[in-house]
Amino acid sequence: MPVPISQMWTVASYVLKQKLSGRKRYPLVLMLEPLFRCNLTCAGCGKIQYPTDILRKNLSPEQCFHAAEECGAPMVSIPGGEPLLHPQIKEIVDGLVARKKYVYLCTNALLLKEKLDLFKPSKYLTFSVHLDGLREQHDSAVGREGAYEKAAAGIREAVNRGFRVTTNTTLFDGADAKSVRAFFDEMMGMGVEGMTLSAGYSYDKAPDQTKFLGRDKTCELFDKILSNRKKTWRFNQSALFLEFLMGKRQYKCTPWGMPTYNIFGWQKPCYLLQDGYVDTFAELIQSSEWHKCGTESGNPKCANCMVHSGYEASAVNDTFGSITGLAATLRSMLFWKHPNKAALKALDEPVERPHGELVTLTVSEQTPREEVT
Ligand code: SF4
To answer: 114 lies in a domain?
Structure first.
């Protein structure tokens, strides 16, 4: 089971409560960014381009707690920036856990091993480690040799000490499906609880604008990766959202499902776009131009977006909002393999690596297991 039953129950009962109360737009996960500074400069990141005075700022623990209470979502994801650089990250995590929020601390894990003593294992706390593939792919994606090794050491230590650990992986143009599947094997071998996947969003501030995937290419890639699944793989994500990434179902964006709070306030309208900030969650819901959100809205900034912060809440809403959605979720979980001969064959087709070189990866080119354990 990729997510503990207690968490599933909390989320299911929360969604049902919102439905029964007739609430049209409700948050599922608070995206809490307590700082923007980071110890990496990834090419696809849209958060580290702020001037130094902004990068130096931190949200206080009180601001974080106020945002969590104001919004009321049962889960809090803490991205950034790198949250482990926040001087009061322990207080923030402890306070959210005390409020029984399911916290996903998103980290590149460069500091995880040395900071682990700050935290206590809890069903409410998960370290969500950013890894964009096997050693070669990850080090290249984050622009730092040795980043994978360090993160892997952090993962192993956290797993050994009884923490919940997941991975979060963003895939860009040129990603090799076969290598990503080998990466899944690697992660499950390390004992992570589950994996999460996302397609890279084309941030206009990202240093490298050439790596982003269009919708069709996104679906093609995820279909190759997620068809013919291995029994050992576990995903810490909605089964229907994974089918959405594979192009098997359509959803409308529900950006209010994962609202963002950071040093500027509540970000309109979503985690990715910045159409201004407001002081309260209620103002965010009332004043955002939701009709301009989503691929179907015609907003060019949304044209290629399939990101979890817009669409995973839509999938969860589908699961708990209708009998057909629930049945589809159960079917997807029961028939987890998703057999697809064409997708299997496509795994052996040549792919372009991010730097443009045309190659066919063979299993022997993938990082041997002994090198990373
Ligand atoms: S589709 Fe939704 S999540 Fe994606 S950029 Fe547009 S509003 Fe944001």
So the answer is: yes
pTM of the model: 0.90
Would strands 358-359 and 125-130 be described as parallel, antiparallel, or unpaired? unpaired
Query: For residue 348, which amino acid is it?
Result: D
| Radius of gyration (C-alpha) of the chain in whole angstroms | 19
Domain assignment present for 154: yes
Nearest Cα residue to atom 3 of ligand 1: 310
- The total number of structural domains in the chain stands at 1
Ligand 1 atom having least distance to the Cα of 302: 6
In a domain, residue 216? The reply is no
The Å distance, Cα 270 to ligand 1 centre, comes to 6
CB 80 within 8 Å of CB 106: yes
CATH of the domain at 113: 3.20.20.70
Q: Are 256 and 27 in contact (CB under 8 A)?
A: yes
Residue by residue, pLDDT tens for the chain (373 residues) are 568 889 999 999 999 999 999 999 999 999 999 999 999 988 767 677 889 999 999 999 999 999 999 999 999 999 989 999 999 999 999 999 999 999 999 999 999 999 999 999 999 999 999 999 999 999 988 989 999 999 999 999 999 999 999 999 988 777 899 999 999 999 999 999 999 998 887 666 555 555 566 788 889 999 999 999 999 999 999 999 999 999 999 999 999 999 999 999 999 999 889 899 999 999 999 999 999 999 989 999 998 899 999 999 999 999 988 899 999 999 999 999 999 999 999 998 776 554 334 333 333 333 333 332 2
Q: Which of 273, 288, 295, 306 to mutate to test the pocket of ligand 1 (most atoms within 8 A of CB)?
A: 273
Does residue 317 fall inside a structural domain? no
Distance 99 CA to ligand 1 centre (A): 29
Determine the distance separating the centroid of ligand 1 and the alpha carbon of 312, expressed in angstroms.
11
- The 3-state DSSP class for residue 146 equals coil
Domain that holds residue 74: 29-209+230-238+250-291
Q: Which residues line ligand 1 (CB under 6 A)?
A: 253, 255, 269-270, 272-273, 293-294, 301-302, 305, 307, 309-310
DSSP states of 122-139 as a string?
A: -TTEEEEEE--SSHHHHH
Query: Contact at 8 Å (CB) between 158 and 116?
Result: yes
